[in-house]
Design a protein that fits this description.
The protein is built from twelve helices and 13 strands.
Amino acid sequence: MLVVDRYVGVDPRFQSNARKARTRRSERRSPERAGTLADQRDDIPDLENPLFDDSQPIEGTVLTANPVGYGNPLPPLDLEPLEEIFPDTPLPPFVWEQGLAEAEPSTVRIGGEKEAATALAGDAALTEDVFENEVITGDEAVAGKSMPAEGEASLGNAMTVGNDAFSRNEPALSGNASLAPDLRAERETLVDLLAEYDLTLRSLHRQGGRLLAETDRGPLRVEFLEGEKALQRGRNITAALKHLREKGFTQCPEPRVSKYGERVIPWGDRAYYLYNKLPGRSAKLDASRDLQEAGRSLALLHRGGRGFQPVEPSVAAPLDIPGQFAWGRQVAADWLAMVGRQRFFSDSDHLLRENLPKLTERGEKGFAWMEAAYQEKRKQTEQEGALCHGDYGAASLLKTQRTFWVDRFNHCRCDIAVTELAQFISNIVRSSRDGWKEAIYVVEGYESVEKLTEADWRILLGCLIIPFDLFEHLEGKIRTEPANTIELIPDRKLQDQGFRRTRRTIETCNRAYAAAYRLAAQAELALPI
């Protein structure tokens, strides 16, 4: 038997007859919305509308339009022609071929993550409070995005436009940009400076305290030195870069030569040198492969720097480790004498008095263990010549798919190569408790190019053992604390800040010693401690 369902749609057994609750109560409604829609319609008069009435009007009757606001179009505005309102102002010509290049001067600036565009006219200065990067344009500026910053990838980019069009044939706006005061002065200098290279300045960017100039032949990094011996230092830097590239280390800047044959140009109290923007992005030394590659790049730099002699030896003085250790020893003695005259001691002082004898004894033994090897290596370096970067680390490395590029040579000097390796390892091991593992990766990468001798190992391990961080901390306490007494600080948080700084300093010294102990085991050497 065929059963036919008589219900179509929803089964009434599953329907709910309960009414849904209102979202708003009538007494909470605003007065203008208190009535229903039907009540509001009753208030509107039912007037005839001839526009939508199909019936023909009766002869002799006059149709009147409904008031404005009841569905009728607005009445036409009785406007005067523009020629009568502004008789002295001619109308702008309407020409299809006219581009944006003939428009009024303006500047477009785009913040990276905020995606905000602002057009400013006149000479109003733009500050860093509005945009993260500062950008200026010249009279022949072009439209184009700013190059990404080296090491500041999270900063917002900026874009400036000017008279001409970019190579992509994009329209541009004309006129000078509204500049920050310091960049406006830099722009005026660089316009004349680039003329000696037959280059034209398009825009100028400030990225992390450094200058990046967009020219008609690509982006250039602008480096300058200040001081009385700025020109001599600049000549040493350019000579070092030239020496490295001639010896096969090409992962470094190549200074441009002006049309007069100069690599360093003195300008006022500064000395400028320019080079092409290096490829790559900011390096993060958090993987074993990156640490090995960083050590390998440092070894290649030291191998390429063999035989380098500075043009101006007076401004390229090497590090004086014996002098620094003698200074640290005197600082420790002065602090002990100062504390001995005090009547009260803070938690920081108690911690220092407990650990200072052990750390200073460790430093004395480590320096005596490395002193002979250091003096011998010093004489060899002065005779044969060598080159150190001076500030080698993650901030001076740019990572590409294959290798690292080395930048920021403003502190390069003629010095023992292994002392720079020790300084690089010391900066790495201070950041974490397992820094000794990272130190081993760096040494493995370095020894893949240059094998360390026993004298090199002694200098490397001795520099890690000497507590230079402790000496700097003691000098800071001598400058800030009184000589005869100590102030009782009632706030416990302030006392804890000094205690934490002291404890952190002692911990960094112990981390460096732990790294020296692990590296000594790898080199099969016995430490004197």
